[in-house]
Known about the structure:
The chain has 338 residues and is of the alpha/beta class.
Amino acid sequence: MxxxxxxxxxxxxxxLPKTETHLHIEGSLPFELLHRxxxxxxxxxxxxxxxxxxxxxxxxxxxxLLAMAGHWFTSPDRYHEAASVLFTRLRDEHxxxxxxxxxxxxxxxxxxxxxxxxxxxxxxxxxxxVEVRVLMGIHHVGYxxxxxxxxxxxxxxxxxxxxxxxxxxxxxxGPWAADLWARARAxxxxxxxxxxxxxxxxxxxxxxxELGVRRVQHGVRAIEDPELLHRxxxxxxxxxxxxxxxxxxGVVSSYDAHPIGRLMDAGIRCTVSTDDxxxxxxxxxxxxxxxxxxxxxxxxxxxxxxxxxxxVASVDPAWREDRLAEIDDLLDARAEAA
Length: 338
Ligand SMILES: [Zn+2]
C-alpha cells in the first residue's frame, strides 16, 4: 500500500514504539504460511490487498477471511506458529511492543478446538520484548446452551486476558452479554466490544452503557452523534481504530474522509491497528502513513496515537512509563535536530 510521506515522517513512524490493540489473530495469519500449505489455492496474496479494493459487504469479507483462516487454524499448535511469526515480525519490522489480539470463540465451537489451550498457545508465542494480551471474541449469537459452560469457564483460564464482542452488529445481543462482561471485569479481565462500524452511534452507546466497556473496537460511526461523543469523552472511552479496514469495508467513503482526526478533536482517545492484515494487506507503517499522507497528521499527532496504545495497555505502570518516555525522547531529539 502506498501513502506517500516525506522520508523524515516515515523514519519517525518506524522509530516510534507502537502497539496493535485491534488485531484478530485469524485475520492476521502471515500470508506465507497460508501459501506454504495451499499454494494451489493461494499462489499470491488476495486481490483485497490492493489499495483501491472495496468489499461489496461484510458477508463477502467474512466469507473470504474464514475460507483462508479455515485452512490454517486447525489446532492450538497452528495458532502458536502463526502468532509466533506475526508477533516477531511486528516487533522486528514495526517496533511493536504491546499487542492485544483476539481469537474467535466460533473457531473453537465449529472447529472443535480447545479454547483454553488456544489462549495458551497464542500467549506463549510472545517473543522477548513484546507484551501480549489474549482476548476471546464472542459473536452476538455465540453464547448459547452449547457453548455457555466453557465460555463461563474461560473467565478463569490462566492465559486469557479478556473478552471482546465480535460479529455483525445488527444481530441482537441477549441479556447474557451484560452479565458475562460484568463477571469478566470482576475477574480483572479486559473487556471490549466491536461497535460503530456497520451499525450507527446508538450501538456504541449501548456497549458502553450496557456492557460497561471503555474500549470500543472501531467506534468510528459515533462521529454521527456529537452529544454521544461528548459523553464518551467524559467517560474516557478509547476507540481502537483501523482506517484501512474502514475504507475497504465501506464504513468510510474514502481514505481522505476518515474521521479519526475529528474523533480525537472531540476528546476521544484513539489508537491505530491493522484489524485483519491477511485480508486488507496493510501494515502498521501503512496505517500511520495514511494518517500523515491523507489526514495531515504531524509528528505530535502521530506520537499521540502511539502514546494512546500504551496509555490503555494492561501492563505494569513502570513499563508503561518507560515506553511513554521513549516516545517523548524521540520527539525531543527530532525537535533539536530540526
Ligand atoms: Zn475487528
